[in-house]
Amino acid sequence: MNGSTDVGPAANGGSSACCSCPICLSPIDPLQESFLDRCFHKFCYNCITRWVGVVAKSSSMPLVSLDCPICKTESFSIIHDCDGNSFLRDYIDQIFTDRGSAFFTEAHKYRLRCYNDRPGSLGKIFDVSRFWKSQRYRQSNRWLLSWLRRELQTLMKEEDVDIVLHHIYGVIDSSLKRVDFVAAKSPENKQKEFKATVFAAAEPFLAGKADAFADEVELFLASGLTIEAYDEVYAEHLGLNARAVAGDLISEPSVNPHCPFLDGDPDETD
Hints:
2 domains
């Protein structure tokens, strides 16, 4: 690659250089680690994609490659979400298309940030364990289809996700209906079976993001909130202002934005 056999993270100038982003100069969060595909210099994912936007604005031609901010080697993609078994690749021309696309709104960008900077306490905030113990999963969620559409557009970076959307929606619906028939009927086993099913359905389309997507599906269902209310709670725990970050959040009309599921609370028994 680029005439050198010494490539990869270890070639980036020593351990201290590997730990700090050359753009923001801050330590790189492991969830944000990304590399340019030719020189393998490491950056925060958010920093290098913003850099793509800066370079694109100053270019008179559509951007198809990027010169590394450090060594000026030409690269054509950003590699990220490496877990030892798989990785995701964002091509430079596609990043430019996404940032300039009419469908890729501030709401999509906000949700992409949520996947990159996921808070760890939302399971308790939305009381996921109670969702399974109280059998609230039996109740329909009127906002699920719209929420799924936005999440899939965000992660796939494509506007037309209808085929994948209806496939995953159908899997979720049928899984929630049959979860009571899991051999060991403990809430924990129901939860495990459901998330494994969602992961298996999403993995061919979302690759390394499928596990996080399955977690997010569970959180959204357990929250019982509208899309807008869910985003507000999520943003609060990321230390963001949801309305400022995503002024065009997708939401469904309702009398009470915090009302759970359809027309009332299901009977709950712990």
